[in-house]
């Protein structure tokens, strides 16, 4: 059994973990600041240092899996665009790491690899068809079909948050209008709540914060639990948008499991109930729901790291 070092990095942190076996418990791990403003050469150097720091010794047959911000090309190992990492366009991350450490390297989108992690060792384990959606600062996802990560012809499949759900909807961070991310991500539901609060809707939200600018999804959840009508309405609207979107995805992929992760999913039943109700209302036929379960993610921040380990072992 060959060892794997898995890396998960973004605009804030680099995490690396050494996995001596297929089990999801690492033998050692580390976490460093990305310091993205220093540019790709400096960040790649820190990734290499993180990998070396978790290796107990020189390892025969070592493989490396990397969960990176996308979009990227997993076939060539090249980063195409990274909004929170300046200067990375066209950088071949896989080749750079492989040449430095003299071992094979596989990279993929961090949300895709979180889907792999949840499928193999989290809430999706035991089935071969899984939809994974992470609802946080942005909305990403991944599709596991017949036990394989769906990549698409260029390795770009699975951008489940950047699909239009409202034709005349709000502007998304990607520059398009009406994407799910612009409606149901953490910043989006916070923005909607602020706008409605400033429009003098009935609400007790100012009992929880000093100004509307202090709102966040966690505070909205607290207020909703106490029955605040505006907070409840905003979260329910987000849940309905997610449920409607999932109905379309269920028609396309017919999963056995839908796994929802990310910080906004921590709203729990406040979000999950309108998701489930909307999905049931909009599904084409009850057969799609017969074996389908919608579950919260289990692996938390480790999903991408564990998914990178699994991905490196599968290739």
Main β-sheet, spatial strand arrangement: 3-2-1-4-7
- The CATH homology group name of the largest domain: ATPase, nucleotide binding domain
What's the helix count?
9
Number of domains: 2
Q: How many strand segments?
A: 12
- In what range is the share of β-strand residues? 15-25%
Helix content: 25-40%
Sequence of secondary-structure elements: EEEHEEEHEHEEEHHHHEHEH
CATH class division of the largest domain: Alpha Beta
Which geometry do the CA atoms define?
Answer: globular
Q: What is the CA–CA distance across the termini? A: 14 Å
Rg measurement, Å:
20 Å
How would you describe this protein?
- The chain has 315 residues and is of the alpha/beta class.
- The chain folds into two domains: 126 residues, Nucleotidyltransferase, domain 5, CATH 3.30.420; 172 residues, 2-Layer Sandwich (Nucleotidyltransferase, domain 5).
- Helices cover 36% and strands 18% of the residues.
- It has a five-stranded mixed beta sheet, sandwiched between helices. It has a five-stranded mixed beta sheet with strand order 10-9-8-11-12, with helices on both faces. A two-stranded antiparallel ribbon has the order 5-6.
- The mean pLDDT is 95.
């Amino acid at each position: 059994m060959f060892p794997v070092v898995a890396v998960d990095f973004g605009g804030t942190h680099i995490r690396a973990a050494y996995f001596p076996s297929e089990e999801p418990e690492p033998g050692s791990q580390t976490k460093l600041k990305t310091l993205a403003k220093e540019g790709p050469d400096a960040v790649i150097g820190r990734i290499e240092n993180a990998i070396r720091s978790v290796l107990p010794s020189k390892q025969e047959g070592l493989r490396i899996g990397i969960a990176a911000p996308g979009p990227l090309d997993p076939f060539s190992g090249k980063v195409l665009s990274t909004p929170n990492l300046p200067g990375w366009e066209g950088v071949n991350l896989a080749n750079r790491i492989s040449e430095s450490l003299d071992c094979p390297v596989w990279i993929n989108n961090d949300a895709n690899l979180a889907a792999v992690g949840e499928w193999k060792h989290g809430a999706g384990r035991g089935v071969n068809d899984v939809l994974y959606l992470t609802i946080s600062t942005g909305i990403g996802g991944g599709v596991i079909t017949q036990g394989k990560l769906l990549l698409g012809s260029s390795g770009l499949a699975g951008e489940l948050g950047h699909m239009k759900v409202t034709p005349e909807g709000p502007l998304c961070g990607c520059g398009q209008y009406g994407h799910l991310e612009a409606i149901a991500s953490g910043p989006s539901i916070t923005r909607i709540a602020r706008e409605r609060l400033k429009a003098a809707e009935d609400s007790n939200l100012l009992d929880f914060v000093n100004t509307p600018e202090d709102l966040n999804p966690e505070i909205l959840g607290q207020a909703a639990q106490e029955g605040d009508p505006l907070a409840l309405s905003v979260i329910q609207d987000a849940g309905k948008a997610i449920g409607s979107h999932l109905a379309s995805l269920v028609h396309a992929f017919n999963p056995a499991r839908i796994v929802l992760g990310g910080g906004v999913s921590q709203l729990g039943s406040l979000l999950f109930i309108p998701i489930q109700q909307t999905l049931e209302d909009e599904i084409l036929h009850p057969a799609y729901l017969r074996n389908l379960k919608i579950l919260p993610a289990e692996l938390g921040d480790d999903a991408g790291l564990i998914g990178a380990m699994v991905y490196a072992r599968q290739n």
